[in-house]
Amino acid sequence: MSYDVTFQRCGISALFDLKGAVDAVEAWVGDALPDFPDRPNYRTGKDGKELFFIGRDHWLARAPLEQEVALEARLKPTDCPVDISIVRVSDTTTFFRVTGPDAGEILAIACPLDLHDSMFDAEAVTYTEVFGLKALVMRCKDGIEFGVEQSFADMIEEYLSRATA
Amino acid sequence: MLLIPCPFCGKRNESEFIYGGPVGADRPDPNAATDQEWVEYLTVMPNPLGPVQENWWHARGCGDWFTIWRDTRTHDIVEAPDGTK
Amino acid sequence: MAQSNRRAAGGRIDRNQPLRFTFNGNSYEGFEGDTLASALLANGVRVTARSFKYHRPRGIMGHGPEEPATLVELDGEDASGNRPATTVPLREGLNARSVNCWPSPEFDLGGVNQLFARFIPAGFYYKTFKWPNWHLFEPSIRMAAGLAAAPFKPPSKGHFEARYAHAEVLIAGAGPAGLKAALDAARAGKRVFLADEGTEAGGSLLNRNLTISGRPAMDWVADAVAELHGMQNVTHLQNATVWAYREHNLLIVNERAPEQGSILERSWRVRAAEVVLATGATERAMVFGGNDRPGVMLASSVQAYVNRWAVNVGTRVALFTNNNSAYAVAADLAAAGIIVTAILDSREHIPKEALDLVPGLPVHPATVAAGMFGHKRVRAVLAAPLSGGASKWIKCDVLAHSGGWNPTVHLWSQSRSTLQFDEDLAAFVPDQAVQPCRAVGAAAGDLTLDRIIDGGEDSAYGIEPLWRVDVPGQRGKAFLDIQNDVTVSDVHLALREGYDNVEHVKRYTTGGMGIDQGKTGNINIIGTVALQKGLPLQEVGTTTFRSPYTPVSFGAIGGLREGWGLFPYRHTPVTQWNKDNGAVMYEAGARWRRPGYFPKSGEGLQDAVSRECRAVREGVSVYDGSPLGTFELKGRDVPRFLDFIYSNIMSNLKPGEGRYGLMLSEDGLILDDGVAFRLDEHRWLISTSTGHADAVNQHMEKLLQTEFPDWQVMITTVTSQWNNATICGPKAREVMQALDTDIDLSPQSFPFMSFREGAVAGLPARVVRVSFTGELSFEINVAPRHMAELWDKVMEAGAPFEILPVGSESSHVLRVEKGFLSLGHEVDGTVDAYDLGMGWVMSKKKSDYLGKRSIELRRSGGGKRHELVGILPVDPNQKIPEGAPLTPGGRKEATEGLVTACVWSVVNDHWVGLALLENGHARQGETAHVRLKKNVIPVTVTKPVFHDPEGKLLRS
After folding, report:
1. CA angle C264-C268-C273, nearest 5°?
2. C698 Cβ neighbours under 8 A, 6+ residues apart
3. What is the Rg, in whole angstroms, of the alpha carbon atoms belonging to chain C?
4. Cα A26 to the chain's mean position, in Å?
5. Partner residue facing B60 (CB), from A41, A55, A134
6. Which of residues 16-45 of B touch C (CB under 8 A)?
7. What is the mean pLDDT of residues B64-81?
8. Which pLDDT score, from 0 to 100, does residue C128 have?
9. pLDDT given at position B85
10. What distances in angstroms separate CA C751 from CA C182, C748, C757, C777, one per listed residue?
11. Tens digit of pLDDT for each residue in C532-553?
12. Residue ranges of chain C with per-residue pLDDT less than 70
């Protein structure tokens, strides 16, 4: 092993894509989700649920998979008004965790974004590139967590194996 | 590899973006434009030696389409989009 | 004798670590700390290379990346080509050979070229080998005039890595100026990235015996390195060359043999807020007759070999200079006990501070070297007084020459920052920075240590330029570019023939190209041009400095992306099942790995595909349709948006209904075909072809964000939220019933082109009735987490009906039988919907949609169109290659179309094809002709449909 890291394929989470004007979305979701983050590419959390502000008028809500049904019942994607969009996208994204002292080294191979503590703190979350793919990147305990389009997950796993060989 | 200012995400590596061509003329009314006007709209694109306004898509980022002014001689981004951090 | 030239003591080598290595098949020994070059010199190997064009014998001339003469190929763990021997760290078992000679540099058959040298000046190849064409001669010339080939095998173990880094200050070079800049920035708390090309820090201090405040300068270096290593905010790399300076302060660093697992080389792409270029200076050669002979070396290199590597490159050394730096070299040589036989200085008045360094040594002012005696090793230099007096031979076994110093401005110039010619230094120095960067130390023209470090002790620099020796009676060729065998007369020839811009001179003579990029000689070419044209050097200017500064392995640039990693790949949850069940896997658009076909043991492609097609037409099949691009759309303006991007009308669809449509681009080309469904009042689902999903997404987002920002349409990509198993064939409904579903499957309540949600096999599903084969089809969409389970249940429920999994090969056959178009086959940049017989998809009611005006404009000119037709070979067993041209009567004339597809149709027992044929719609029933290289195939022109023309089956 070149690097002191472990990586883990965590699979999918409950994930809902929310779009629309912030007031309209906030009004619809009520207290089903954490407070809306006030800075771009930041996240908030409450009761195991997280809310990522990842684009203009665009959020992702994430929760453990076992909360998916309950959260969907609260968010009511098929009933929401015409001016907001809520779509369950849990299956689209496979999450990986890279942890250990050299986690930053592996991410430096994979990702062009500056993930130094001073530039990317614990509450930051953003889409960027990981091994050439669009990926949702954030910190986790002892390392970095990222999500990629589920169909590429096998390839990402192979890349991580090669990077840490 | 440029460092491109995204209005939502700030400066990011060019590899996160897809180039969307220079900003051309507004789309004319297809039912009013002459053939000549329509062909020019389709085919005549700005191609200056110097600053040009161009579209970029933050495809591997927040998904924003935005424009920058880039100097074609130097790659200097002489004007960033509104609201850039 | 082993290491006969190694000094008894001293040097930065570890004598306790002897290393054995092989050069051109001979075994030698060196020490840890050696380069291949220093070890060869220690062993007295004089002839190490043959030159590029004339195959002249050459030796080692430099001690670093400037080395022009000795390039080697390495084998085994180090497999690589075109490595300057001076930059190859020695290690146990190294196996190297010279690149441009056969069988050896000592006895090289190509050396016969020397006899013809006067017949092969610059431009010779351009002028001579132009008829009938250059490519006829190129292979043999390339073989004779050679650099190394790519290694036959990749390095035998390990892998490459490429990575990103970010710094507040990047410093290139860890000599005195670079270390000082690094200390300053690091102590201020900045994130510092310091990279140096050498095996250890110190730069020029490694080669010299200088002091800082009375202590050895290398002690100061050791202190600086130790302090930097103690700081968290510093990344310090040795063996790491900053080789490219790109826009927006991106620099690329190639780190060789990092001490990290099995990593061979590592490429760093560093984005820096500020860049400090402490790249030092490069000594330049003198230009005089015989200046390429083995034993003619750069003065600083002779000094480096003595001081750093404890190698006496000769016993009797003569020096030739136009500047002060060679006097410190002479002093070091004399101190080392080497006989200095002469110092030839082209200057008439030699500064006192120079002379003070060499008391008692024979200095010849206003004297130049005008020739060398000795073929494979020098024996004497011809000393010619510039006053015109008698020349005389002075014995020497090494001639050390110094033409002055060039600040190493390669990276500075790559950043597009400007240069100016400094008359005092007779060199180009950094002028205006155009990116956030600055040059320091020798790179900025501060060539002596006292100007760089407080307390640094060094004697002053002074120079009077001499661009080339030009005295009567000069003997032998005077080389400007050693590596490319470019002489003064070649440059004169280029100027005579009108190539008088310095960039043209470079292209015509090849001077300054190649591995060393003319590090020692370019300035002399510029000087020679300036002298000839009577211009100042500033006006002649330099050629453009381009990356890489020194050669870089492709492997390091690629990093992990080798083998399977060259292209991304995507799997569906059924990929593994497909592989386990014998599928031949293809890449089928947008990087998806999909089954092409499922051969039984011993079965060929055609038989397997025909068997799968028969199952679809006569029984039932299942196809993994997961990769289809799918998007959910929401918002007030979705109906008008869909009406704008599709050529037909979508807005009048009712919930649960869908429609096939074409998307055109504004210029009227077909962008994609797909299906739009209305899920409910405000939610829509569109599907695209697999290969165009990303392009359609980009297209839609661009329109919405740049053209129609006021339209409320929100798009969510759900390609990977829904996977599907498509049950297809006359028995599809029976399989659906066997799967157990709460959806009413009758054709009345679930007609073709509609959409239902419900449970299938106990799984939440969206079922869609579309068909890409012309048979009854149910597309069962489930979440990917359920896909493998669904697939198993389909295979189980379908077993009594002999369900077969089918791949993309049979899908292709089935769509051709139906005349369904495929982008990339029937659709190219010339074809529109009318040509395809799909005028029905072009709305007459809408006043505007994307592409409408352009198609009207294009068709208004009249003219013949290539139109989609079916073709039946007159001989039913005659296959036609896809892409084959159709010509009138099969004659050798301009084509009138091409075959877009041709497949064996099991329902027709006949090869059937599709073609784009001039005026094809009006020619049904006629015979057309496919013209191949060897034969002509007559075909009957038909409608482009060979199965169920009324479409009863797919609606059943």
Report:
1. 160
2. B18, B20, B57, B59
3. 37
4. 20
5. A134
6. 18, 20, 27, 30-31, 33, 35, 38-39, 42
7. 92
8. 65
9. 40
10. 74, 6, 14, 11
11. 999 999 999 998 899 999 989 8
12. 1, 100-103, 109-120, 124-147
Higher-confidence residue: C118 or B12? B12
Note whether C608 and C743 are same-domain residues.
Answer: yes
Residue C155, pLDDT score: 78
ipTM of the complex in this document = 0.98
Chain B touched by C706 (CB under 8 Å): yes
Task: Check whether the bond before C548 is cis (ω within 30° of 0).
Answer: yes
Superfamily for domain range A6-10+92-163: Probable tRNA modification gtpase trme; domain 1 (3.30.1360.120)
Give me the CATH number covering residue C672: 3.30.70.1400
A161: nearest CA partner in chain C: C560
The CATH number for C380's domain is: 3.50.50.60
pLDDT tens track for C741-770 = 999 999 999 999 999 999 999 999 999 999
Which residues of chain A does C269 touch, with a Cβ-Cβ cutoff of 8 Å?
112
The total number of residues written for chain B in this structure: 85
Q: Which structural domain range is residue C704 located in?
A: 629-717
pLDDT 10s digits, A73-132: 999 999 999 999 999 999 999 999 999 999 999 999 999 999 999 999 999 999 999 999
Specify the CATH number for A14-90; select among 3.40.50.1110, 3.40.1440.10, 3.30.70.1520, 3.40.50.2000. Answer: 3.30.70.1520
For an interface test with C, which of A85, A148, A149 has the most C Cβ atoms less than 10 Å from its Cβ? A85
Contact, A99 vs A141, CB < 8 A? Answer: yes
- Between C569, C627, C720, which is nearest A92 by CB? C720
Identify the DSSP state of C604: -
Q: Say yes or no: domain B3-26+38-79 is CATH 3.30.2270.10.
A: yes
Size of interface A-B (CB pairs under 8 A): 46
Q: What is the pTM of this model?
A: 0.93
Residue C534: is it exposed, middle or buried by C-beta count within 10 angstroms (0-12/13-18/19+)?
Answer: exposed
